[in-house]
Design goal:
By secondary structure, the chain is α/β, with parallel strands linked by helices. It is about 35% helix and about 20% strand. Helix 3 runs parallel beside helix 5, helix 9 packs parallel to helix 10 and helix 13 packs parallel to helix 15. The two termini are about 35 Å apart.
Length: about 550
């Protein structure tokens, strides 16, 4: 314990000295650094499992039935996320985008899944897309969250579901049959048996292939009237359908409801759920309305616009791999979900690559694909997630390796809440995905020395990543194989960025070639140790107790 404590003190002294000498220059550099979605560092969290900022909203709609372990509401909410934004937790972690699970009103009842009751704590069981679930918070809470995030330069990505409603319970009747189908369940054998079906039993599937004019579900009409907002909702729907010319078909109602959050709150992006279970044209139409809503918000709030980035759309096409380029193969049909729809897709391949090939093989492969087949688009890389039961490091024995691979990999990075604190992914007594969804381990961050060291590792890598778009969005080139050193370069309009990274190095003195990135006599700084040095003979010498070096130009 004494060795660990001493190490923390030395690390703090090194970093403190570096920050004192370079604070003003780094702040100036950061102010000039553009936000680039393709190189962003995104944090993904379950709204209900991150931080309980308002205990008064923990129980609503008489959701008091005993549930299976981790299958009920645990108290996390929008206010809790905002508290951590304002406290600088995400800024210290080098996060410049936050994606959290859906916050719309969930079914009121619970589903008995044979392993105990389950409520819609995860947010994917919508009852009313136009309301926030009070367990998560209010629209005023959401407004404050977006404002707090934007003040810190952090973008907000909501999670949108168009494919299905929530399950049917005693409190939650099925929607009309001109809105949903209730069977058969998907077989996943081809295109048709993946789309025209329900994901699982008792998860009614929206008729997204229909262009038939349909009335609102009677349960929504009754609900809105009881809440005193029926007339206003109808007025807005009339205006939407008049402007767009769309038929009053189920998918267009939901698209309208989801894009309202863009116009009202100025959110920066959507992660789209269950993309391959819906006709691809739906996402092209969704993009059209998202873009319109974002431009409307910008015109109405010119003083709040962060930059000229387009609205961000990332799709969950389950089992999509970067190796597939722009296409997903159903077996009998290939679909390009990037076409006039998504800017990025979640990459399900990295966790397999991490276990099978070297970092250089991964980095060079991703660089080649992103700068060729996927040029102009992106991927969202992850190693752990909320519904992937086979993550790269489920036992949390390779936490430092995971951080380096994820945060230095070409593409957008997705930290799953608790990756940075080794939150357990195996909880005894849970069933299925619930084991991946324990409450955030804030006590470990506060009191556990090894957790503090891991968090510091993530913080240094994360800040380096967001300060340098070249890391995620640039061009990769290996400088030397042993020691393993590579460069990343990025250029767009009048902005250029270049860094040199060394990994798996020896502790103590390290001599590193910088290739052609830095000139003779340039002052450079290792952003990890805080040590400054000078380029001599195309090399730098760094003495630190760490096995990695993150080199940037010193200002």
């Amino acid at each position: 314990m004494k060795k660990i404590t001493s190490f923390i003190v030395v690390l703090a002294l090194i970093v403190g000295c570096s920050e004192k000498n370079n604070k003003e220059a780094v702040q100036s550099k950061k102010a000039e650094t553009p936000f680039v979605w393709e190189g962003a560092n995104m944090y993904f969290l379950l709204t209900d499992r991150f931080n309980n900022g308002d205990t008064s909203n923990d129980i609503n709609f008489e959701r008091t039935q005993e549930t299976g372990l981790l299958r009920g509401f645990e108290g996390g909410d929008i206010v809790g996320i905002t508290q951590k934004i304002e406290a600088g937790y995400f800024t210290d972690l080098g996060i410049n985008a936050i994606w959290f699970t859906p916050i719309v009103e969930q079914i009121h009842g619970a589903v008995d899944e044979g392993t105990g009751a389950t409520y819609g704590y995860h947010g994917y069981w919508a009852k009313d897309w136009t309301s926030l679930d009070p367990n998560f918070g209010t629209k005023d809470d959401l407004k404050k969250l977006v404002q707090a995030a934007h003040k810190k330069g952090i973008r907000i990505v909501l999670d949108g579901v168009i494919n299905h409603t929530g399950p049917v319970t005693n409190q939650d009747p099925v929607w009309p049959d001109n809105w949903v189908l209730t069977g058969p369940t998907c077989k996943y054998q081809d295109y048709d048996s993946t789309i025209n079906c329900t994901l699982v039993e008792n998860l009614p599937d929206i008729l997204t292939d229909s262009d038939e004019n349909v009335d609102l579900p009677p349960q929504l009409v009754e609900k809105w009237k009881s809440e005193g907002r029926y007339e206003q909702e109808i007025k807005e729907l009339d205006a939407f359908f008049e402007r767009t010319g769309y038929p009053r078909a189920p998918k267009y109602y939901i698209i309208k409801w989801l894009t309202d959050y863009i116009v009202e709150f100025g959110v920066d992006g959507y992660r789209a759920d269950t993309v391959k279970h819906t006709q691809e044209a739906v996402w092209q139409e969704f993009k059209t309305e998202c873009d319109y809503a974002f431009e409307t918000w910008k015109k109405e709030n010119p003083d709040l616009v962060l930059d000229d980035n387009n609205f961000y759309l990332v799709g969950e096409v389950y089992n999509y791999s970067i190796s597939n380029g722009q296409f997903f193969d159903f077996g009998d049909k290939k679909v390009n979900y990037y076409d006039k729809a998504f800017q990025s897709l979640i990459n399900f391949e990295l966790k397999w690559n991490a276990a099978q090939i070297s970092k250089e093989e991964i980095f060079s492969k991703y660089d080649s694909i992103l700068n060729n087949q996927l040029k102009g688009y992106g991927v969202l890389n992850y190693l752990t997630s909320h519904d992937d039961g086979q993550p790269f490091d489920k036992d949390r024995t390779k936490t430092y390796q995971s951080a380096e691979l994820l945060l230095l990999c070409p593409g957008t990075s997705q930290i799953y809440y608790g990756d940075e604190s080794a939150r357990p992914l195996i909880i005894e007594g849970t069933v299925g995905d619930a084991t991946l969804r324990s409450f955030m381990n804030w006590d470990d961050i506060e009191n556990n020395e090894s957790t503090k060291l891991l968090l510091a590792h993530y913080q240094k890598l994360g800040k380096f990543r967001i300060n340098h778009p070249s890391v995620g969005a640039g061009v990769h080139k290996m400088i030397s194989e042993a020691p393993y050193v590579f460069q990343r370069t990025y250029s767009k309009e009048n902005f250029t960025d270049a860094v040199v990274v060394g990994l798996d190095l020896s502790k103590g003195i390290k001599e590193i070639s910088v290739g052609t990135i830095f000139n003779e006599g340039d002052k450079v700084i290792d952003a990890y140790s805080g040590i400054e040095t000078i380029v001599k003979g195309g090399k730098v010498s760094i003495e630190s107790p760490f096995t990695l070096v993150l080199l940037e130009k010193s200002f």
